[in-house]
Amino acid sequence: MSGTHIFQTSIDSKLITVSVMSNKSNLEHAHREIELIYVIKGQLQVKIKGNTYHLDKADFILVNSNDFHSFQSEKDNLFIVFHFNYLELSSLLAQKNLLFTCNSVEQGESPNQELRIIVEELLSVYMQQRHDSEVESLEKTFKLISFLKLHYLKSTNQFEIQSYSTSKGQNDRLLEIIEYMQSNYREPLTLEEVAGLHYISVPYLSKFFKKQTGKTFSQYVNEIRLAHAVNELVNSNKPITRIALDNGFPNLAAFNRVFNENYQLKPVEYRKKMSETVEKETKSTNDISNLETNEALTELRQYLKNTEDKSVQALPQSRSTADNEIIKVGKTDSFVKYWNRLLNIGYAKDLLNSDMQEQINFLQSEIGFTYARFWGLFGDDMLLEDRSGGTIAYNFSNANKLLDFLIKNKLKPFIEMGPKPKIIQKAIGETLVIQTVSSERTLEEWHNLVTAFLLQCIERYGIEEVETWYFELWRPMEELNSNAEEEKDFLAKMKNNQDPRFDRYFKIFSEFKRTAQELVPGAKVGGCGLSMDLEGDKLDLLLEQWKQEEIQPDFLSIYLYPIEIDRDKYRVPIKNLHSTNPHYVLNKLNDVRKSLKKAGFENLELNVTEWNISISNRNYLNDSSFKASYMVKNIVENLNQNHLKMMGYWLSSDIFSDFRDSKNILHGGAGLVTKNGIKKPSFHAFVLLKQLGEILVAKGDNYIVTKKSGDRYQILCFNYKHFNYSYYLHPEGSTGIHEQYDIFENNEPLNLSLEIQGIANGKYRVKELKLNRNHGSVLDEWLKFGAVNDIKSDEVDYFKQICVPYMKVEHSLVENHTIVLRGELQPHEVRLFELNLLFGER
């Protein structure tokens, strides 16, 4: 039998529709929705834009918006069709034009197998049809969308018209014309109208369009109209005349003529034929209670049950086995420890606090950083300017106290010079404190202040010292972004070499750098603290404009927080804007490097001046052992990638975010240490990373092996877990303190077995350090303590003593130049092995 059944939940019905089909065929048609076809049983022939694909069991293919397509069933089959609402999906993914490349027939297995699992998880939830399954179905829907975005969605700057051999300029023009036709096919489109909109003559457009597409303008428009009309003819009860007029045909006669030319029958005959088929199919299934008896749904339910049984049987084996990964010590590579070059202290005035100074001193002695970054040096509360006498006099006493302290502790200043305020945020869009930095200054006042400051620094510390400093000029990001209404005009102006947004920043930057070059020519001057919502075309345009300036930066500074924000995307019920991409940091840095190369800044120094999992200072993830594995995973993953000079973890101490609501020992602050000076897992992660050698032996998905001079090896392993998809359905920081470990993809341990070959034989001292929930996690120790809020000073000392990693030492005799290191790493665990040769074979 053949049939179609559609089922959806009330929450996400605007986002996705799921249809179960068997033995179904369809004429060529098109629609705005994005369609994913997944074959459960048998075979299905799918035709998309003239190309035919033969799908077998477990094959899938995605049909992009407005693509002409049809499918033809071959023998007995069963398949699923997912329809995604284009506007909702575009809004959710924060990309105006969506283009996917998702085809299991032509693509390799990875990541196709994982997509199959996600699709079948979603189907299992939909088949339950329970009143309480809506949240679960929404979670699985977001999981599917996120996976499609991560592995199959093309970014805007990857768009190209593959079938036409035109120049880049012609490609852009043809793409714009076709997009306009697809968006306005319901209107009485004419060749004259489109030619006028694109400032070209009618004869040129006619000849150009026919040459590039092989069709006349009117043929192409009628194909678009016909494809959408066919979709409505099958899936709606609208009168045929109304369908014709709604899809751009001038009258019913024109629709009949075009339809008959393409399908050799009239629309009324086709609708009658389809109605008879549907009536026959649904005769025995008149309401939802009868779905259980439907052969297709019963077969789907049995298929999903068999799939689930197989996965359950396979699970114990995958947990208990550990792959023995072989690492051969041979050709090695050097690398730069970029992660501990920069320490973010925060707001300048806070550094005059004795508690803050004590903690910075401690961090420097335990970890050791090269640069200390701070902002607000020219803030009003630093009392630099005396305007009482009618003229401006300068008093750098407070600034000198700050700089003296840093230099005494062997920290070189990395000074953020712009008007960056002190902000304490609870979550995205939820701010606790904004402390205004400084009064408005004219360009002349700014120049005079900077000149006076640099001259007194040279006098106090010597030009050789000041030339080793970094100066970053920040700019508020809202001035670099454009809203939806302004974007088209903004891009048009930038393409015409106009600079409506960047001119003021470039002017201030040039003024400062010119002054710095005259006084301290060796110092590095850069900017502008780009946040990653400024990306793609906007980032390209900014860099291209900067490249045209006479004064250019010595480095580009960016902020990396895995947050994906779009001001207009709140139509879907997603509350948490953290990126679902576990490789966000690496991917963003790859994108930035591509943009730099495109703009002619290929060798420009790149510095991440701030990075963290979140901008929040009220998120207990900051205090958990998850934070350590997150840091180590991203640092190892980005090693020797994208020519990164330094990467400044945000932030040094919880003192920065102390406020009236932070009375507890922990308040979710982003610091490496609590305000009481207790070491967090993030602190211990830096200490373990510090032990790595300067020579890279190997690195994998869960480990890195390094070497120091002599026969000394360091193996750092980690069991990172990314968030599960229910995490994104709740506001950031809303998870209770006792539920911090319930928001991850799984809680499975990692069975690691590393066989290191090629080392010298002899007796080794093997030191092992474990950082996990049981050893070194202040959050877990506080929970064991009762999570009380009235901690006494002696109890703070107790936490300082117990919040440390587990440590043990063994001696191991190495023969055959091989040693095997095994261990079961708990979720979020970081483990370090240090191998030191005591004496070798004689």
Would you mind describing this structure in some detail?
The chain has 842 residues and is an alpha/beta fold. The protein has 3 domains: 3-158, Jelly Rolls; 168-281, Homeodomain-like (Arc Repressor Mutant, subunit A, Orthogonal Bundle), CATH 1.10.10; 333-690, TIM Barrel (Alpha-Beta Barrel). Helix content is 36%, strand content 23%. It has an 8-stranded parallel sheet with strand order 10-11-14-17-18-19-20-21. Strands 1, 2, 3, 4, 5, 6 and 7 form a 7-stranded antiparallel sheet that branches. α18 packs parallel to α19 and α20 (625-637) packs parallel to α21 (681-690).
**CATH superfamily assignment of the largest domain?**
Glycosidases
Beta content: 15-25%
State the separation between the terminal residues, measured CA to CA.
Answer: 80 Å
What does the overall shape look like?
globular
The CATH architecture of the largest domain: Alpha-Beta Barrel
| Unreliably modeled segments | 8-12, 159-168, 284-293, 312-321, 477-499, 567-574
**Nearest-integer average pLDDT:** 84
How many β-strand stretches? 29
How many separate helices?
23
Topology of this structure?
Layout: E1 3-7, E2 16-22, E3 26-29, E4 34-48, E5 51-55, E6 60-63, E7 69-84, H1 86-93, H2 112-128, H3 134-152, H4 168-183, H5 191-197, H6 202-213, H7 217-235, H8 240-246, H9 252-263, H10 267-281, H11 295-320, E8 324-328, E9 333-334, E10 342-347, H12 354-366, E11 371-375, E12 385-386, E13 393-394, H13 397-408, E14 412-416, E15 422-427, E16 430-435, H14 443-461, H15 463-466, E17 470-474, H16 484-495, H17 503-519, E18 524-530, H18 537-548, E19 555-560, H19 584-599, E20 605-611, H20 625-637, E21 644-649, H21 681-690, E22 695-699, E23 703-708, E24 712-718, E25 750-757, E26 762-771, H22 778-785, H23 793-802, E27 806-814, E28 818-825, E29 830-840
Parallel strand pairs: 8-25, 10-11, 11-14, 14-17, 17-18, 18-19, 19-20, 20-21
Antiparallel strand pairs: 1-2, 2-7, 3-7, 4-5, 4-6, 4-7, 9-22, 12-13, 15-16, 22-23, 23-24, 24-29, 25-28, 26-27, 26-29
Helix pairs in contact: 2-3, 2-11, 14-17, 18-19, 20-21
